[in-house]
């Protein structure tokens, strides 16, 4: 297949790759800021999850009121 | 402590959404980086500038994907503490280790080298830059390896044991965790799926240039690399997927039976259900089309071993629940008296089934008080969503075979130097762009949705892994993530489209712009 070709130099005075680099850096910074904002909102407005080992024990082991002998 | 089903559902939804979103970026990084390494190797070996320009252009799109994807996975790690606190406590000693190694070893390597890759063109020698690119590729793939080791432990929890004194799982053999056969099968299957995505990305965008007669020489070479690498990757993903299927049939029999909608155990060798409509209510599959022997060969690598059906597995589970209750009772005895010899012996005998007793927690506070009806309900709860698994798996597999055909044809066209004069092929390559993403996301749905109701297979039910948070709290974080990720997705799509449309010519990377009559207008003129 025959192809004609000619040399074309990019005419834009601004370097698009430099602009892209700046955009990407700003996006990453914005992401970190937004994620921090979500994290801060949750920690500031809600009680913390009970992650103590004792809480896990309560979750997995039966509550104090249960009576094994009541099994039918 | 009561389990709030809404918190469980929302926490699962949040994790699933963030994981599926994160995995839009990961596989493209995994695949594209090897294509960059291949192109740069050709540049260093031949010294031809065109190959360097190809690395630079595809590197721009790699950079956009990397920047948009980075930190989207961090939210999942946050969720382990935020929504899955009990999960983290119960198995964090085992599960956290590969995650920590991933961050310290692979991600730091990857994060550092990605900067050197972009900034090092003028500062490093050709060979040094090539070394950076190869190590970048290695870093991204090592990152995937550690994550998949962690994930595989959830599917096949080896190398760890429950400690009744600390009430959590503890590592007994890190070597077993590391060389978990499920991890090996998952790693090679997942990264090869990423290679297919990277190849399709290059193939489709190059096809778009050829359709418009832009960057013709550049696009033709790119397509040749993508076709070769893509064919090898597509063949690998199917072959290694078969290995992954074998691992599932060994360790997660219920998941395998659900994928197959196999309600009853068939005499060996089991047939493969090519098509059918699973009926969950009546536990049957309507209009099933079977291929004899295939499932038996895939699942057991033999012709004389059966693959258990769902109904049989539910009956087996009832027995395991009975064993689990004994282990649970022994665990509570040991909590009071760590020297009780009888309890120690019972726990040692049945501790692998203790998780099955915990399934009863959804129905009764103390598993030891479970009625036969509770046990029936808990056993039935081990059946995952059969229609979702059945169809997700089949669409994924169909996509896999389509990729082999497309890349094989692309490879043939490339070898005949006829890539750029076939309009329907170029359009097909262009419109196939989303398919590898669809198939990999479906693959993850099969893997993770198919693991339910377990967070850790046979050890910890998902419902017991959640934090003591309110549904409102999970709604808030879920809404925040959805809004944030939607915004990010729009920005990503805009940037990718913008710079792919610009192409290497308008970005000043490709110094010679061929002016060729656009193929589409040429064809339509006839």
TrEMBL record, chain A:
<feature type="transmembrane region" description="Helical">
    <location>
        <begin position="20"/>
        <end position="42"/>
    </location>
</feature>
<keyword id="KW-1133">Transmembrane helix</keyword>
<keyword id="KW-0812">Transmembrane</keyword>
<protein>
    <submittedName>
        <fullName>Uncharacterized protein</fullName>
    </submittedName>
</protein>
<keyword id="KW-0472">Membrane</keyword>
From TrEMBL, chain B:
<comment type="similarity">
    <text>Belongs to the cytochrome ubiquinol oxidase subunit 1 family.</text>
</comment>
<keyword id="KW-0812">Transmembrane</keyword>
<dbReference type="InterPro" id="IPR002585">
    <property type="entry name" value="Cyt-d_ubiquinol_oxidase_su_1"/>
</dbReference>
<feature type="transmembrane region" description="Helical">
    <location>
        <begin position="424"/>
        <end position="447"/>
    </location>
</feature>
<keyword id="KW-1133">Transmembrane helix</keyword>
<keyword id="KW-0349">Heme</keyword>
<protein>
    <submittedName>
        <fullName>Cytochrome bd oxidase subunit I</fullName>
    </submittedName>
</protein>
<feature type="transmembrane region" description="Helical">
    <location>
        <begin position="223"/>
        <end position="241"/>
    </location>
</feature>
<feature type="transmembrane region" description="Helical">
    <location>
        <begin position="131"/>
        <end position="154"/>
    </location>
</feature>
<keyword id="KW-0997">Cell inner membrane</keyword>
<feature type="transmembrane region" description="Helical">
    <location>
        <begin position="99"/>
        <end position="119"/>
    </location>
</feature>
<keyword id="KW-0408">Iron</keyword>
<feature type="transmembrane region" description="Helical">
    <location>
        <begin position="391"/>
        <end position="412"/>
    </location>
</feature>
<keyword id="KW-1003">Cell membrane</keyword>
<keyword id="KW-0249">Electron transport</keyword>
<feature type="transmembrane region" description="Helical">
    <location>
        <begin position="187"/>
        <end position="211"/>
    </location>
</feature>
<feature type="transmembrane region" description="Helical">
    <location>
        <begin position="20"/>
        <end position="45"/>
    </location>
</feature>
<dbReference type="Pfam" id="PF01654">
    <property type="entry name" value="Cyt_bd_oxida_I"/>
</dbReference>
<feature type="transmembrane region" description="Helical">
    <location>
        <begin position="474"/>
        <end position="497"/>
    </location>
</feature>
<keyword id="KW-0813">Transport</keyword>
<feature type="transmembrane region" description="Helical">
    <location>
        <begin position="57"/>
        <end position="79"/>
    </location>
</feature>
<keyword id="KW-0472">Membrane</keyword>
